[in-house]
Amino acid sequence: MTRDAIQLRKARFGDGRAIFQRIKAHPNELVPRPLSDIMLNIDRFLVAELDGEIVATASWSVLPELDPTKNPSIEIQSVSVRDDLQKHGLGRRMVEAAMERVAEFKPDQLIVLTFTPPFFAKLGFHPIPKEKILYKLYKGCMNCAKYDSPLTCPEVAMALTPAPREASL
Ligand SMILES: CC(C)(COP(=O)(O)OP(=O)(O)OC[C@H]1O[C@@H](n2cnc3c(N)ncnc32)[C@H](O)[C@@H]1OP(=O)(O)O)[C@@H](O)C(=O)NCCC(=O)NCCS
């Protein structure tokens, strides 16, 4: 696999089913997303394509901020790299492309909830108390059927204050 053979691009409606399958391939690490959710948020997805196949995904959602003096946070979600292509820098490329894409919205911070904190630490994220992202816990985690409480779930909350820059994708 050469780096140049893999093309990163914005997702299209036609990618919906492939994105659905790619996320579903990591049931222990990623929250599965219904196809309808993927389609409604297709403009919040980036994909990587190799030989006509979607081999990696990354997406984001906006977390509103009650304090009117602050901008919303953006949560990076659904970061998936096909198993045989992992450990070659593609995950980093996907997250960095997503970070670049969302920078134009000027979020106050980027957050992730992840079972893979070392990967995001390499990208500059640092752990934060889950209590700092209560909106996310109420909106998403409260509906989780896997763990008793978002506060005891083993997913780690991490954040990064983005450097100002323009999007290129
Ligand atoms: C996590 C995931 C996206 C990483 O993708 P990847 O292409 O293997 O990552 P990269 O090769 O770009 O790694 C970037 C850096 O993170 C490190 N890293 C990647 N995965 C790691 C892991 N599981 N544990 C520790 N370090 C890890 C790499 O060693 C690399 O370090 P370096 O910059 O010093 O060389 C991929 O393993 C995956 O799809 N996992 C299943 C889904 C998932 O857990 N998604 C993340 C939660 S949203």
> Percent helix among the residues?
10-25%
Low-confidence segments, ≥5 residues, pLDDT <50?
none
CATH class: Alpha Beta
Q: Spell out the CATH superfamily.
A: Gcn5-related N-acetyltransferase (GNAT)
Which strand order spans the largest sheet, edge to edge or round the barrel?
1-2-3-4-5-7-6
Overview of the structural elements:
The chain has 169 residues and is α+β, with helices and mostly antiparallel strands. The protein has one domain: Aminopeptidase (3-Layer(aba) Sandwich). Helices cover 24% and strands 25% of the residues. It is built from 5 helices and 7 strands; from the N terminus they run βααβββαβαβαβ. The protein has helices at 16-24, 35-40, 90-103, 117-122, 134-139; strands at 7-10, 45-50, 53-63, 73-81, 110-114, 126-127, 156-160. A 7-stranded mixed sheet has the order 1-2-3-4-5-7-6, with helices on both faces. Strand 4 (73-81), helix 3 (90-103) and strand 5 (110-114) form a beta-alpha-beta unit. The two termini are 23 Å apart. The model has no long low-confidence stretch (mean pLDDT 91). The structure holds coenzyme A (COA).
Features of the shown structure:
5 helices; binds coenzyme A; alpha+beta; Aminopeptidase; 7-stranded mixed beta sheet; 169 residues; globular
List the helices and strands and how they pair.
Elements: E1 7-10, H1 16-24, H2 35-40, E2 45-50, E3 53-63, E4 73-81, H3 90-103, E5 110-114, H4 117-122, E6 126-127, H5 134-139, E7 156-160
Parallel strand pairs: 4-5
Antiparallel strand pairs: 1-2, 2-3, 3-4, 5-7, 6-7
Bound molecules: coenzyme A.
